[in-house]
Amino acid sequence: MTKLQVAIDLLNTKDALALAEKVAPYVDIIELGTPLIKSEGVSVIRAMKDAFPDKQVFADFKTADTGELEAGLAFDAGADFVTILGSVDDATIKGAVKAANERNKGVVVDTIGVKDRVQRAKEVSAFGVKFVELHAGLDEQALDGYSVQVLIDEAKSAGVPVSIAGGVNKDTIKAVKESGAVVAVAGGAIYGAEDPAAAAKELRDILNA
Ligand SMILES: O=C([C@H](O)CO)[C@H](O)[C@H](O)COP(=O)(O)O
After folding, report:
1. What is the mean pLDDT of residues 60-69?
2. Which CATH number fits the domain that encloses residue 32?
3. Where does the Orotidine 5'-phosphate decarboxylase domain lie (predicted)?
C-alpha cells in the first residue's frame, strides 16, 4: 500500500498545525517542508509530533553535511524521518543512518539535483536508508516541459524503496501508486487547494481504490 505524505511548505507553525488538523485523517506522514523548518526552527517538529503523536513526522532538512549531528537534531525534536541530500558525500548519509539506527528512526535520501536518480537510489539504499525520494523540486517543476512522469518511470526501474515528490496530484497519483512507490508526496495539491481536507481525501481514496 502506497502511503500518503502531505508536504507542508507553509512558513509558520500556526498555519502548519491548522493544515495538519484538516488533513491528518487522510495522510500517513506529515512532512515539515524545508522552508517551514528554516522559518521556525526545530520547534515546529516538536509541536507537530505533540499534536499528532500517531502520525509519522518527516523533517525535510535536506542536510548537506554533518549528517549524524543534523539527523540527531531532527530525531530528538520528534521527527520519525529526516532527509539528507543524495548529492552529498556518502559519509554524510552514513552518519545520518547511524543517528537513525541509534534511535529506531529513519533516513530518507532526497535526490533533488541528482543527475542519475535511479543509480544514486541504488547506491544509498545499501547504506540502510528507509527509502529514497525521487524528487523534482519546486524550481525544477516550474521549468518548461516538466512532467512527474519522469519520476514515475524511474520508480518502476529503481528496484529499491522510493517515494515520488514533484507535482503529485489527483491526476497523477494513480500512476504513482502503480509505479510501486512506497510513498506519494503531495504538497501544493493539498495546501494549495481551496479545501485541503477534500483534496487529501481525494488522494487517499485514489490510493485506496
Ligand atoms: O520538498 C519540496 C520542495 O523542495 C520545497 O520544500 C516539496 O515539499 C515537494 O516538492 C512536494 O511538493 P509539491 O511538489 O508541491 O507536491
Report:
1. 98
2. 3.20.20.70
3. 3-203
Please tell me the total count of domains within the chain: 1
Residue 138 beta carbon below 6 angstroms from any ligand 1 atom = yes
Q: Quote the domain boundaries for residue 181.
A: 3-208
In this prediction the pTM is 0.97
pLDDT tier, 46 (very low <50, low <70, confident <90, very high otherwise): very high
Q: Mean pLDDT over all residues of the chain?
A: 98
Determine the pLDDT at residue 144: 95
**What cell does 105 get?**
528512526
What's the rounded Cα separation, in Å, for the pair 134 and 155? 7
C-alpha–C-alpha distance, residues 184 and 202, integer Å: 13
How far is the centre of ligand 1, averaged over its atoms, from the C-alpha of 166 (Å)?
Answer: 6
Q: Tell me what pLDDT residue 128 has.
A: 98
What size, in residues, is the chain?
209
Return the best residue to mutate from 6, 44, 60, 81 for the ligand 1 pocket (most ligand atoms within 8 A of CB): 60
